[in-house]
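Morning!

This is the sequence you dropped in the shared folder:
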Amino acid sequence: MTAPADLTPLAEAVECEFMYSYESQAPGPTYTDLGIATTRIGGGVALAMRNDPSGGYWNKALGFGTTEPFTVRTLDRVLDFYREHGVDQAVLQLVPSVLPAGFDEVAAARGLEPGSTWVKLAARP
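The structure's back. C-alpha cells below.
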C-alpha cells in the first residue's frame, strides 16, 4: 500500500477560491452595505467585511504557502490590507508547515495571538 498523497495544498486552494468567490461576487448593494473588500496577496487571499453581521467570520486570510512561500512581507501586506479597510480583527488561517522560521516572534511583535486550531479532513472519492 502506498502512502496517501498530501491533500493539504488542494484543500487550502479549494477553500481559498470558494471564500474569495463567495465574498468578491456579492451583489453590489450587499457588497457596499457590508463593506466588503477582497484581494489576492502572496498566493493567498485576504477578505474583509467591515460590517460583518456574524461578528467576524468573514474577515479571513487564507490559502498561503501553496503557490509561493508565505513570508513576513506577505504577513505585513495582509495586516496593511485590514488596517486600510477598517477591520481590527481577522482570522489568519495558516497551515503550520508554511510558516517561516521565527514566525512566533514575528507574530508577537505585531500583536497577533494564536487562536483556535482547525482541522480539515480530505480524501479522494
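Headline: The longest strand covers residues 36-41.

More detail when I'm at my desk.
O.
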